[in-house]
Amino acid sequence: MKNSECTLSKETQDLLYRYFAAAANLYGVIEIGKLLKIYNSQNEPVSEEDFLSFVENMNFKGKYFCVFNQDDIYDDGSETPALEQEILTEYLYFFEFDDDSLDKYEMLKYRQIGRNFDMIRIMFVCHGNICRSPMAEFIFRDMVKKGEIADRFVIKSSATSTEEIWNGIGNPVYPPAKRELAKHGIGCDGKRAVQLKKSDYDKYDYFICMDSNNIRNTMRIFGDDKDGKVCKMMSFAGMNRDVSDPWYSGDFEQAYNDIYSGCKGLFEKFKGKA
After folding, report:
1. Nearest to 100 by CA among 24, 34, 20
2. pLDDT in tens, 139-174
3. 132 annotated active-site
4. ∠156-159-165 over CA atoms, to 5°?
5. Cα 62 to Cα 265: distance, rounded to the nearest angstrom
6. What domains can you pick out in the chain, each with its CATH number?
7. Which of 126, 131, 188, 263 is catalytic?
8. How far is it, in rounded angstroms, from Cα 172 to Cα 189?
9. Is 263 a catalytic residue?
10. pTM, to two decimals
11. CB under 8 Å to 151, separation ≥6 — which residues?
12. Which residues contact 38 (CB under 8 A, 6 or more apart)?
């Protein structure tokens, strides 16, 4: 149900729309209370009441972002306080519609009310994104889930090449890699190869590459690593070597063991912080 009709001028509403679009592109996910503060610091301030009315009456048709309230995000049976009483700060978010939207929604769905939305964003990288990097993605997902800290992470994987992507559609996880994960009770259904993009640099905190070639190719995509985000998987296991490549060795068990040891070190690094 919508609040009372928005009384803001068309000029102000148009400007607010542009702020929503810009923030969706810049942040991906943001509490709209923060957006109100940003807007008011740069323009003639609007009241929380008028801003809420604008949000509730917003027409999303043709827009690439959306606003979600607590009922959309949480599924724990808790009662949602009146929107007017919450004044934006805890329960309203918006995010752009892109390939990561479902993951962003899942992050919010499992987030506990009142916790700081300070996710640790990790991208595992290999050449084709059908063997080692998806194995790392799902091993680490399983690890943080069992450690009960999954709500603090965004975990993805990607390729430095397009060799496993045809007409924009990536190949699924290589069957022997999928079978090796299954041996350990880990699923990877639905995962398809995607290519790492230059724009990913600002969206993730760590780009964990499986070998030295992956690092070189990652750097070609990014151009530089000004924030020191690119690193090697086995460094988290206290080693400088590459993860064994089962594409050439055929030894998926060894690859699993290497990746598991790296993920374990990564888990230990963050478990006290998450």
Report:
1. 24
2. 999 999 999 888 888 899 999 999 999 988 999 999
3. yes
4. 110
5. 45
6. 1-117 (no CATH), 118-274 (3.40.50.2300)
7. 126
8. 8
9. no
10. 0.61
11. 107, 110, 111, 112, 115
12. 19, 23
